[in-house]
């Protein structure tokens, strides 16, 4: 089977296993803290809803500015590895401040120093990875990117389970130390990893995508919906069920499906086109958000996770590759642009639910509307492409 051949080729490439380990451990470190972040600010630092949003928003705004600026110039650098190394070291410094925060000001400073440079990490890691596999195995570069992203997700969800249990044993302090360990592991592995530079050694079998601002807006809306879920679902779950660790278990339910769905999505996108698969993933997201608004049953929250896992797999696997292919000759910028889109979506997503009073499942009417509008845009793009292709076919037949 093709998938078996591709996987064997992937793991046989020098440096591939180091990249996999790097993303897995970084994912664990990130996942340990992710579902507890807002809860930590609320329960331990005693910040209000507006203050929590302000902390996340300021940190993200600084992150966005750094990410897109450095992403623009990173392709001029012969070695990109130094960027994520410096970023991870700054994140470690910020975490020391954040874990000792006692009020709004110290939490804001700690979070900003931690989050602001972190956008360089994912963008530059995948920029380096695309260069690495384009040089060694251009025919599987897209699937290699997806498997690396899936490995990060597996690590992330492993971190969720660890975070929930660490919280029960060592409270929020243990969770924060676990997050710091992820950054330390990343620095160590980056120093070990030998970066690939130079032109591709083999011809890539990947075709570029035409630049489309409309599709980027549609992806922004999908990412914005996911960002709202990422921040507010943990608060809604805490409000409904009263236990912070439940959110870690809910998110970790996705891990079982993540690798399979990302791989499936990658091959489906190669066969049917990225936009059609992104459209399908958005339909699953819409169904999930509507379920959140209409149910207060914990088993139902777990039951819809496989559907949402498919959407996330498409959003962070297929969509990431789609954006990168718009800039095949500028891998650093393409990867950073996708991260920038995600960050912009998060910044917008943090503020939109403020129009709804309190922490309530009604918040998820907002991501439902965003996804519905995004699906409409993607559907219109596909319809126009179909009409254009049909018109071109008629012209060719007449000639």
From TrEMBL:
Keywords: Cell membrane, Membrane, Sugar transport, Transmembrane, Transmembrane helix, Transport
Entry annotated with the keyword Zinc: no
Pfam families xrefs: MFS_1 (PF07690)
Organism: Paenibacillus chondroitinus
Top-level taxonomic group: Bacteria
Protein name: MFS transporter
Membrane topology: Multi-pass membrane protein
Keyword Heme applies: no
Residues passing through the membrane, by range: 20-40, 52-73, 85-101, 107-129, 150-170, 176-193, 213-237, 249-270, 277-294, 300-323, 335-356, 362-383
């Amino acid at each position: 089977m093709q998938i078996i051949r591709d996987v064997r080729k992937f793991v046989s490439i020098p440096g591939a296993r180091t990249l996999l380990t790097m993303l897995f451990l970084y994912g664990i470190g990130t996942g340990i803290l992710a579902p507890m972040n807002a809860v930590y600010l609320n329960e331990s630092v005693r910040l209000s809803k507006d203050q929590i949003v302000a902390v996340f928003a300021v940190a993200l705004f600084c992150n966005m500015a750094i990410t897109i600026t450095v992403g623009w110039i990173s392709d001029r650098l012969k070695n990109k590895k130094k960027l994520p190394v410096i970023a991870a070291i700054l994140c470690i410094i910020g975490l020391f401040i954040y874990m000792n925060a006692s009020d709004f000001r110290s939490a804001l400073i700690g979070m900003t120093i931690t989050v602001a440079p972190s956008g360089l990490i994912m963008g530059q890691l995948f920029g380096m990875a695309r260069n690495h596999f384009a040089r060694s195995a251009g025919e599987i570069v897209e699937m290699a990117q997806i498997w690396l992203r899936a490995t990060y997700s597996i690590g992330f969800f492993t971190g969720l389970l660890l975070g929930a249990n660490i919280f029960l044993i060592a409270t929020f302090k243990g969770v924060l130390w676990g997050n710091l360990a992820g950054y330390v592991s990343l620095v160590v592995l980056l120093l070990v990893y030998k970066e690939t530079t130079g032109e591709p050694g083999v011809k890539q079998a990947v075709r570029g995508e035409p630049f489309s601002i409309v599709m980027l807006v549609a992806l922004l809306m999908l990412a914005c919906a996911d960002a709202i879920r990422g921040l507010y679902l943990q608060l809604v779950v805490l409000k409904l069920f009263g236990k912070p660790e439940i959110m870690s278990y809910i998110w970790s339910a996705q891990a079982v499906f993540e690798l399979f769905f990302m791989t499936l999505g990658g091959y489906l996108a190669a066969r049917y086109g990225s936009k059609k698969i992104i459209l399908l993933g958005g339909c699953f997201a819409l169904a999930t958000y509507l379920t959140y608004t209409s149910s207060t049953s914990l088993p139902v929250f777990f039951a819809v996770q496989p559907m949402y896992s498919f959407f996330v797999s498409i959003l962070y696997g297929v969509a990431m590759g789609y954006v990168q292919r718009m800039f095949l000759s500028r891998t650093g910028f393409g990867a950073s642009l996708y991260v920038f889109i995600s960050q912009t979506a998060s910044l917008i997503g943090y503020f939109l639910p403020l129009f709804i009073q309190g922490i309530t499942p009604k918040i998820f009417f907002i991501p439902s509307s965003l996804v519905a509008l995004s699906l409409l845009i993607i559907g219109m793009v596909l319809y126009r492409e179909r009409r254009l292709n049909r018109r071109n076919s008629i012209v060719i037949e007449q000639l």
